[in-house]
Amino acid sequence: MKAIRRFTVRPVLPEPLRPLSDLARNLRWSWHAETRELFRAVDPDNWRAAGGDPVRVLGAVPAGRLTELARDEQFLARLAAASADLDDYLGGERWYQQHTGGDAAGLPAAIAYFSPEFGVTAALPQYSGGLGILAGDHLKSASDLGVPLIGVGLLYRHGYFRQSLSRDGWQQEHYPLLDPNELPVTLLRQADDTPVRVHLALPGGRSLHAHIWVAQVGRVPLLMLDSDVEENGPSERDVTDRLYGGGSEHRLLQEMLLGIGGVRAVRAYCALTGHAAPEVFHTNEGHAGFLGLERIRELQQDGTGFDAALETVRAGTVFTTHTPVPAGIDRFDRHLVARHFGEGAELPAVDTERILALGRETYPGGDPNVFNMAVMGLRLAQRANGVSTLHGAVSREMFAGLWPGFDPEEVPITSITNGVHAPTWVAPEVRALGARHIGAARAEEALTVGGSLRWDSAADIPGADIWALRRDLREQLVAEVRTRLRASWRERGAGSAELGWIDTVLDPDVLTIGFARRVPSYKRLTLMLRDRERLTRLLLDPERPVQIVVAGKAHPADDGGKRLVRELVRFSDDPRVRHRIVFLPDYGMGMAQKLYPGCDVWLNNPLRPLEACGTSGMKAALNGCLNLSVLDGWWDEWFEPDFGWAIPTADGHGLDEDRRDDLEANALYELIEQRVAPRFYDRDADDLPERWIEMVRHTLADLGPKVLAGRMVREYVEKLYAPAAQAHRALDVPGAAELAAWKSRVRAAWRDVAVDHVEVDEASGVAELGATLGLRVRVALADLTPDDVEVQAVAGRVDASDKLADAQTVPLKPAGGPDQQGRWVYEGPLTLDRTGPFGYTVRILPTHRLLPAGADLGLVALPTEATGEGAGVLMR
Prior knowledge:
- By secondary structure, the chain is of the alpha/beta class.
- The chain has four domains: 15-91, no CATH class; 95-102 and 110-419 and 722-730, Glycogen Phosphorylase B (Rossmann fold, 3-Layer(aba) Sandwich), CATH 3.40.50; 444-657 and 692-707, Glycogen Phosphorylase B (Rossmann fold, 3-Layer(aba) Sandwich), CATH 3.40.50; 750-869, Immunoglobulin-like, CATH 2.60.40.
- The strands form six sheets. Strands 1, 2, 5, 6, 7, 8, 9, 10, 13 and 14 form a ten-stranded mixed beta sheet that branches. Strands 17-16-15-18-19-20 form a six-stranded parallel beta sheet, with helices on both faces.
- The radius of gyration is 30 Å and the shape is globular.
- 47% of the residues are buried.
């Protein structure tokens, strides 16, 4: 029979064990080894069955065992120590509180961090891939550093799908129902114990209600909105059913709930708990971009006009883009968006046409009939960034149309390279080895704070210890793979009699390559299969064999990705090679924490430059795994031969996709055959691959501190959060109104602003290195004054088409005017500081004390062909 209702019966903990509840409800246990070991001791059998989830352990432990533990003095002492340690962690001063770099008073009181997914722990499956794992690592590192972050997301009742395989290797999706009462979350309640709700108005008089569940991630609260409440109709209850599920309207409602409902949830949480209100709002990708509209509504409700409210919101908003391709951006039909805003829907006091204008693709090649979430995110944020240096450059190119007249390098999108949370991803055995050599406290500091502190000690670890560790981790991976592979084959319908071969799968002494990814086409899951016979020879080489562990999920709607999975699975099913290459279904955090440490080489072969960052290779590197990757994402930035190998690419040569794949696959095979495998198997008299071990040392000592999320979060604080908070404070209500009025005046006048004439002082002499040219520029400023603009000379090398490169700007000074036609004269020196083809031009930009950058308005006046002499190229 089937139950008609399901609920969770919680145990009543004896008084001495009450601290276990607090320890289980704070997700710090997911990266704090001592707390996990404490829960393992509560009930070792249930610990394994619960997948290492303390909440599930406490829900299953027998009452008799609890009584026994309540009398166990040794266990109670461990419990008291763990509880005291958590209290110290939550209340003590950390990096943020002790921060002395720059203007400490400029640090924001709080930051709200919005993301559609968060990968904090496998026990809270609210993530699909890299974006969510990055968001989880961001929260955890912010907690370690004491950064006052509030996370905001959605609670998906089915999470992301679980993956299995059919007998013929086709991906199957399963959506198990998640009960929040069985998760490490707490329902936010009013003082009278009623649940806090946020509400959104929908067309047709309907409403969307949501509860707020709080996951405590160390010091950081993560607020997750849940639409599965009784007050909602059936379709509204399903808004938060699945991560990245449903059609356009479903996704739009998810993103409205995340952005608009998320701001309302933050306000409710701060009012109830006394948490400082955020001064900075950070939107992790465009999914949460509607948060800016809700903040505009709040300001308008207090009497601020739309334009001034927009300036205030922009000043305190940070936008991070994670996609290097337009196809990765959410775009909605503008009529669908219009129907959900305005009279009879959400934000009725905010002009719908102004809302639509924020997301309109007004640039060449854009579609004016769609609403682009990334475009809105950029227009609502004064500060934006990509997630690696290369991705920042790609993003500036991709969004350059929003800043017409500016070269891509001047587009105001910076970059902060992603990092990973080392305490989560470094294997306990690796941490133990570090602690033995530099001490546990110093090792912990190196993992959380970042910088070069203590990492150079890896250079002193004996080679025999490193190699013994690497083999131990490889052996653990072999055992994990066999267990998972056996379970996968049983799901595919195989009986026990068919599975004896699994006991011979992988070998702890063979070079092991890992590849685990989502499976969009650009990540090229099957590049390794381009020449199957050559790959087979690599796998079965009698002297230098290779084994490969592969994992990855295709999006449920991506049949092309599913075909790639099936292609890889069918190859790995071949009895000739199945002991050397395996595909593991249901890639997630639990699998990843075994996979990264156990591999010797981490493979990444995307189509360059389509990998925004690619943090899986970072996690592998922190465990002494070497990277074998295309120069894309973070690897393009930090690759050195000491850390691994760069796969040569054929991008930029105009090759068709098949030809490019053939060339790059061949390069991959050659690297493994000629450089990777020989270095792994080249042993000294003690049977140690000393050159390989030296690369592991360099990876840990030199690359390790760079890839930490602690470094990443510190950069966000110093480069984006603190400036955003200071800009927000500077933009009080009169300041915002002043800036909005100034922008309106500048935009109205700008079509009549022009560079009228440019000339070079003939007394400047010849154009030779070190010479100085005297520039004299006549400009028309219409109704503007020199206080409203900056006139610049822009000079640098030029190519054959006279395009400036490595340009530098030199401000020119007003020297007279206005004349009867309202023209002003600007003058200034221009030094010829380099030889070869050299050129310059001049331009006019708007300037204001509250603008973050000259390109902020996207306005620039440049010389035309009719402008006088001096705007061309000097050849010397």
